[in-house]
Design brief:
The chain has five domains: 157 residues, TIM Barrel; 89 residues, 2-Layer Sandwich (Uridine Diphospho-n-acetylenolpyruvylglucosamine Reductase, domain 2), CATH 3.30.43.10; 109 residues, Uridine Diphospho-n-acetylenolpyruvylglucosamine Reductase, domain 3, CATH 3.30.465; 174 residues, Vanillyl-alcohol Oxidase, Chain A, domain 3, CATH 3.40.462.20; 34 residues, no CATH class. Helix content is 33%, strand content 20%. The strands form four sheets. It has a seven-stranded antiparallel sheet. It has a six-stranded parallel sheet with strand order 4-3-2-1-6-5. A five-stranded antiparallel sheet has the order 10-11-14-12-13. It contains 21 helices and 21 strands. The chain is α/β, with parallel strands linked by helices. The two termini are 58 Å apart. Helix 1 runs parallel beside helix 2 and helix 17 runs antiparallel to helix 18. Bound molecules: flavin-adenine dinucleotide (FAD). The site of flavin-adenine dinucleotide has 39 residues, from strand 8, helix 11 and strand 14.
Length: 622
């Protein structure tokens, strides 16, 4: 029989002055809760002021207030409720995770005895006893201790925090190694880890392992919760990967952000999955080297390097994953593995393109090519005919040398405003004449209304991404994105595609339509050398929208022109997208490996290759 024990204090004139001392004594005595009750003879006495007083004099004890007690029912209408809501908000901000405003969470009783404890145990309510002196508090705490009513394995977190826990998680079973660093919904740090850059969320538990063994502990704990969503997070910029969720588990590798140069001569660098590409580029700059990533420095190594990596240097270097020489990971069963071309070649193949399905990457080794200053360009052109302009862009970019990567971005213009096409990207050359020569054809696609071209280190380009700050990511949205790849082999269809794309954009289903240039060195690696299948792609196309059905309707006419998808920009979870992403042969190989390495489909937050997929694609996979 275990229950939380607390005290109740009335907000009468004398009590207000003493309340803080009594609450403080209750905290020192190890009690769980102080409930503040309105005074009987002074119904307009303000418990909220008293609560601020109590909050300031205590550090851990939970504070219970009924926001709409029966004694002030007559005042419960507007605007009183709004005032109360504001008071709750303010107090919550002052004492995060310590406020309880649901009166069903406690029972007020005059005496603590076995009968009261039994009924509290059954109803899962705390028992609170009205007190007026410190002696009474000490006596109450002594009774609780001697009768064994209080305590239990959960007592390491305040009652208010425990009340915010999600159903179905064995909080008491969190491995000892992970307890101190884990974050729950009631913890003050929870808002810093609940959401990601693109998604709002409220997970039930965020596990933050610090060692390889702890990663194994976290995976074992997750495996005991097969009924819950389980997300894997590095730097929290996932679009396809659901690195936050509601009421599920998160394994957060954000703290694994070490970057170590292993061999400066060869440019061999070891990088943790939680590092951002901004950090990586800055660390490599003194060595005159760079690893191409994506267009945004805030994106993490863990998510990008396991899926692809299409960026400003892809046409000259290849995909980010082409520069990986080793991946260290923890398999779903907890086994640590170092995968290279020689050791565990099957995992080395799978981790480069479908990594999220096979293990938790704990370190990557890359060979970083040499790179001097680059020409970084941001241009905006106004165009009359978007279809024609997009077609010109596709041809100009596709015909450019490998040093040139210009991405294009547009959306439907506001009524009365011109159609603007933005170009941004890089010429990987430090000769101003070459840079201008490469950029001029892009600038001529429309009326140039904005331009900035600078000769700069690559690290400075990625440095423009702001850090999330101590408050963490704060998205409250759900991202919806469609992705497709345009093959260089079908460049004769670029004009038709561009016209269809312009119609789609004009329809208003997308607010963000983007081309990322591919081709060049990406095609130097054979298609079956990594799990990233589409080596002939000339462009990655992505569209973000607010509504899935509208996006799908608008996107459907574009599909016929595209071969495959780049999973990092796809949020459609239909099984067909897996064939699009990996190709039928790649998918067959991946599902066989998945059966071997993750038979329980534990890792499933990102293009899951679980048993359902194998069944759906049985024919193709034969
Ligand atoms: C603003 C923005 C710009 C982008 N630009 C580009 C671009 O130019 N080019 C490009 O290629 N991509 C780009 N992306 C896509 C990006 O590469 C993916 O969203 C990537 O997954 C983000 O990685 P992360 O570690 O930050 O994300 P997280 O949200 O932490 O992780 C995303 C997913 O990756 C998997 N994952 C994370 N960590 C690990 C790990 N340690 N081991 C195994 N799997 C793991 C999980 O499935 C997880 O759900 C962009 C994304 C954003 C938000």
């Amino acid at each position: 029989m275990v229950a939380d024990i607390g005290i109740a204090l009335r907000a009468d004139a004398d009590g207000v002055a003493d309340a803080a001392d009594l609450a403080n004594a209750a905290e020192r005595a190890g009690l769980s809760l102080v409930v503040l009750l309105p005074a009987v003879d002074a119904p307009d006495a303000d418990v909220w002021t008293m609560a601020s007083w109590v909050a300031a004099r205590t550090a851990t004890i939970s504070i219970g207030i009924d926001p709409h007690p029966p004694t002030v029912d007559g005042l419960a209408g507007m605007p009183f409720r709004r005032v109360v809501a504001r008071a709750v908000e303010s107090l919550e901000a002052l004492v995060p995770g310590r406020l309880i405003t649901d009166p069903d969470r406690w029972t007020v009783t005059d005496h603590l005895d076995a009968a009261a404890a039994r009924s509290a145990d059954a109803s899962e309510r705390a028992i609170v006893v009205p007190v007026t002196s410190i002696d009474e508090i000490d006596a109450l705490a002594a009774t609780a201790r001697t009768t064994g009513i209080t305590g239990g394995p959960s007592a390491d977190r305040p009652l208010a925090a425990r009340l915010r826990r999600a159903a179905g998680i064995d909080y008491d079973g969190v491995p000892g190694s992970l307890r101190a660093s884990a974050i729950e919904p009631g913890d003050p740090a929870f808002p810093t880890v609940s959401s990601t850059y693109m998604r709002g969320g409220r997970p039930g538990l965020v596990l933050r392992p610090r060692t390889v063994a702890e990663v194994g502990d976290a995976l074992a704990f997750a495996a005991r919760h097969p009924h819950l969503p389980f997300g894997l997070r590095s730097a929290g910029h996932g679009i396809s990967g659901r690195s936050t969720n509601r009421d599920g588990l998160i394994l957060d590798m954000g703290g694994w952000n070490q970057i170590e140069m292993l061999d400066a001569e060869r440019g061999l660098v070891r990088v943790g999955p939680g590092a951002t590409w901004k950090q990586v580029s800055r660390a490599l700059e003194p060595y005159g080297r760079a690893i191409g990533s994506g267009d945004y420095g805030g994106v993490g190594v863990g998510g990008l390097a396991t899926a692809g990596g299409v960026g400003f240097l892809s046409r000259s270097q290849g995909l980010t994953l082409d520069m990986i020489t080793a991946v260290e990971l923890v398999l779903p069963d907890g086994t640590p593995v170092r995968a290279t071309a020689e050791d565990h070649p099957d995992l080395f193949w799978a981790m480069r393109g479908a990594g999220a399905n096979f293990g938790v990457a704990t370190a990557f080794e890359f060979t970083a090519p040499r790179l001097g200053s680059v020409g970084w360009a941001q241009l905006a052109v106004v165009v009359d005919d978007l279809g024609d302009a997009l077609a010109q862009y596709l041809h100009v970019q596709n015909d450019s040398p490998r040093d040139t990567v210009i991405f294009a971005l547009t959306g439907r213009p506001r009524p009365g405003e011109p159609t603007v096409l933005q170009f941004y990207g890089m010429v990987a050359d430090d000769d101003p004449g070459t840079i201008l020569e490469r950029l001029t054809p892009f600038a001529r696609i429309g009326t140039l209304v904005q331009q900035q071209v600078v000769l700069t280190p690559y690290a400075d380009v990625l440095a423009t991404a702001p850090d999330p700050g101590p408050g963490g990511h704060r998205s409250n949205r759900e991202v919806r994105s469609r992705s497709g790849l345009l093959s260089a082999n079908r460049s004769d269809e670029f004009d038709d595609f561009a016209r269809a794309a312009a119609d789609f954009i004009a329809g208003g289903a997308t607010y963000f339509f983007q081309f990322r240039a591919m081709g060049g060195a990406i095609g130097d690696t054979p298609a079956d050398a990594t799990a990233f299948a589409h080596r002939d792609a000339a462009f990655s196309v992505a569209a973000l929208g607010a509504n899935d059905q509208r996006l799908d309707r608008g996107w459907a006419p574009l599909r016929g022109y595209m071969d495959g998808t780049y999973l990092s920009f796809e949020t459609d979870r239909s099984p067909e997208r897996l064939v699009d992403a990996f190709g039928a042969r790649g998918l067959a190989r991946l599902t066989a490996l998945k059966r071997h390495y993750d038979p329980g489909n534990l890792l499933s937050d990102n293009f899951a290759l679980g048993p359902a997929v194998a069944a759906t694609h049985e024919e193709e996979l034969r």
